[in-house]
Fold this protein.
Amino acid sequence: MIYRIGLAGCGTVGRGLVALLGEKREYLEKKYGFSFSLNLVTDFIKGTVASADGLNPREIIENLDRSGGLRSMKEALEDTRLADLLRRTPVDILCDATPTNYETGQPSLGILQTAIASGASAVTCSKGGVGLDLAGLKKLAADKGVKVRYESSVLSGTPLLNLAQGPLAGCLIEKALGIVNGTTNYILTMMEGGADYADSLREAQRLGYAETDPTGDVEGFDAAVKVCIMAQEFFGCKLSLSEIDREGITRVSPSDIKKAREEGKRVKLIAGVERHKDTARGYVKPTAIDLTHPLASVSGPTNAVCLTTDNLGDVTVIGPGAGARETAQGLLSDILDIAARNA
Amino acid sequence: MIYRIGLAGCGTVGRGLVALLGEKREYLEKKYGFSFSLNLVTDFIKGTVASADGLNPREIIENLDRSGGLRSMKEALEDTRLADLLRRTPVDILCDATPTNYETGQPSLGILQTAIASGASAVTCSKGGVGLDLAGLKKLAADKGVKVRYESSVLSGTPLLNLAQGPLAGCLIEKALGIVNGTTNYILTMMEGGADYADSLREAQRLGYAETDPTGDVEGFDAAVKVCIMAQEFFGCKLSLSEIDREGITRVSPSDIKKAREEGKRVKLIAGVERHKDTARGYVKPTAIDLTHPLASVSGPTNAVCLTTDNLGDVTVIGPGAGARETAQGLLSDILDIAARNA
């Protein structure tokens, strides 16, 4: 089978996926028996290209790099609604790489729903839609006999959700503790080295880790959405953003960090979720953790999650938490998993 | 489909698997749609029981705990060859939990070959067979249209091999560096605390981490076999045990550890394998690693592997490296994966 792939959202991550697919075509065929054609790329700003015969990933990259958009390509279409695009150019797997609005989950939620309604499996790296209503999306997908996957929505492509679903199958997860936001971990690592909060934030902004308005990261919203995803994924519990006990890093002072060090500890912004009676309890909180804990040595923009399980005790995974290629890798892993389970 | 499961080797890990299957039956049905009957358990010392209608896991555990064996059960059979047992009581998945001989790979290699020849998928936690000839076993399995899986042969049930095969699909692995032997890591952690080698070894023996003859662990043979498995799994390269550049921990002195500490490092027995031209280079070697490296804080009997990949950079997984339930979990993960890909 040749999988017809579509992509909604062609910013840095979408571009990363197109590049990865182009670069790895032969490897994917040889190693995984996975063949694909990229039939649709649509981006609100950059335009839309579609071809039932398959687009050339290299040409897409060249156009993006040259003109910043897709409108000069011969396969360019007038902008139109995704549902219409998918009717004209159906795909088997639609990848969503649009930016996230935490509150509404849009445009991700609508894109995933539209893709599934068209009969496609849906893969996303956006936190918004799955954070808001993973159960609803899963039900829609089950009704249509397709899949929805979202590895990159937490820890980018570092395996966590697919790890729990696949290689940890049979384990009951009791608790997850993580460093799931690279920006705040970078700032705390700088502060550990002696810098104050304002300077550390400025340096993170200079390096592109933090946005001009850093609220989403430093107030813990980004981490809290990831807690919602983990709560749904690990415990089947739907928590809303307002139910997460959330505290960011803006009030962490050099003296907190010094005090922790004197106690053999290190301050980390911990995103936690655990079973609590019939539901789950989630929080985001600066926490002084013991230096012997595997999360303590996770520094800079690196992310990590420690899962406490019944069969294995603690299992920790450490890896990148952001990046175009890293996030695209998570989308690719989801695509390959859908294909493998379909074979 | 109801999967018919067989088990060869009913020591602590085999017993752990029987217990886990008994305990988790409803959970596995509900969460994974996985139904099974345990039809065959055979152990060279403890005897053989078989039933096409399914054995009761709880009764097996009771008999093992009461009499140390299976011969008093009503389903007990005279000892006979595995091939004959599988002809009389065919299974869909045979689990091998026998102890390993590194040199010959037996009895594991023969058990896996016999199981596959009978038309069963084969799952093992023994290093011997897969360390010696993974490619041969995979070819046999492919010819028969069945699977061979071996997650627990490295890091017990902590996901590594299934992690690379599943959630990391699409990544090229360039290098693996690991702490893959709990006994030596426990000893080095004790020495880090000030004890000398002889005392640390005695304490490891007292706690059951080290065997009376500790050669296999402390001279690095156990780790070297795991390097052979990783070389085959990650790079498709067959390395023999003698091709691994191997040095154990018997010559590590308190002054080596002190010197490392003064340099901001920690001595670990590192098992490494990396691409080298068209083949792979493997080694086991006490190495002073920087305290900022994720492997540096892995202490006691805990294991870890850091994979360097093209798409994600470094991804590290940390978890238990031994234990009955932990190893049985790896077998269970393999069983569930075979079933999921078969669905």
In short: Residues 2-157+324-342 of chain A form a domain with the Rossmann fold fold (CATH 3.40.50.720). Chain A has a mean pLDDT of 95. Chain A touches chain B through 46 residues (CB under 8 Å).
